[in-house]
Amino acid sequence: MLDSPSFPSGHVALATSYCGFFFYVVATRTKPTWVRRTMLFLLGLIVALMGPSRIYLGQHWFSDTVGAYLLGTLWLELTLRWYETPGWPRRRGARGR
Asked: Fewer CB within 10 Å, N- or C-terminus of the chain?
């Protein structure tokens, strides 16, 4: 199965950045309820289990998933910095009102 270069794991990097962003939005923008706790648990579970699942399925080596977690975390950090920049369009509406 590992017959071609596979560094880093795209599945893991995408899950880390995408689910990580939604984890942040749910954690900071919603009221504490059982739905919020469930969403945070499920999003965290997806991120936590994506790497081991790729290794288990024989698609990636351990180093591929570690690199992907690091890359996804870096991308998430950059995205959150941009998202929290004052004056970002979401605060003024879609047309910049």
From this structure: C
pLDDT at 97: 45
The pair phi, psi for residue 67, each rounded to 5°, is -60, -40
Q: Which residue has the tokens 């399925």?
A: 57
Report the chain's terminal Cα–Cα distance, integer Å.
Answer: 53
Distances (CA, A) of 41 to 2, 47, 67: 31, 10, 23
pTM flag (> 0.90): no
DSSP percent split of the chain into helix, strand, coil, nearest 5 = 70, 0, 30
Give the residue extent of every domain in the chain: 10-91
Q: How far is CA 97 from CA 21, 84, 90, in A?
A: 26, 19, 10
